[in-house]
């Protein structure tokens, strides 16, 4: 299926948000996730199904000063 990941259209075999993070090499405990503009808690990623055309945002924390 194709989804929008951080503004880029990609093909994925992942069926859940948790699977997508693993497939794309994100460190799951260290990122925030949103699906179609809605925040998804870490505890809900395994149960969050992906469908064709969904928009997924994965954000890593940044340090600054």
Secondary structure: elements and pairs:
Layout: E1 2-5, E2 8-11, H1 17-23, E3 32-35, E4 38-40, E5 55-59
Parallel strand pairs: 1-5
Antiparallel strand pairs: 1-2, 3-4, 3-5
Describe the structure.
The structure is a single chain. Strands 2-1-5-3-4 form a five-stranded mixed beta sheet, with no helix packed on it. It has 65 residues and is mainly beta. Strand 1 and strand 2 form a beta hairpin. The mean pLDDT is 94. It is built from one helix and five strands.
Give the spatial strand order of the biggest sheet. Answer: 2-1-5-3-4
Radius of gyration, in angstroms, nearest whole number: 11 Å
Termini separation comes to 40 Å
What level of helicity do the residues show? 10-25%
Q: By helix and strand content, what is the structural category?
A: mainly beta
Number of discrete helical segments: 1
Quaternary state of this entry equals single chain
Secondary-structure element pattern, one letter each? EEHEEE
Regions with little confidence, pLDDT below 50 for 5+ residues: none
DSSP E strands, number: 5
pLDDT averaged residue by residue:
94
Tell me the overall shape.
globular
Strand % is 25-35%
Mind describing the biggest β-sheet?
5 strands, mixed
What labels describe this entry?
5-stranded mixed β-sheet; 65 residues; mainly beta; 31% strand
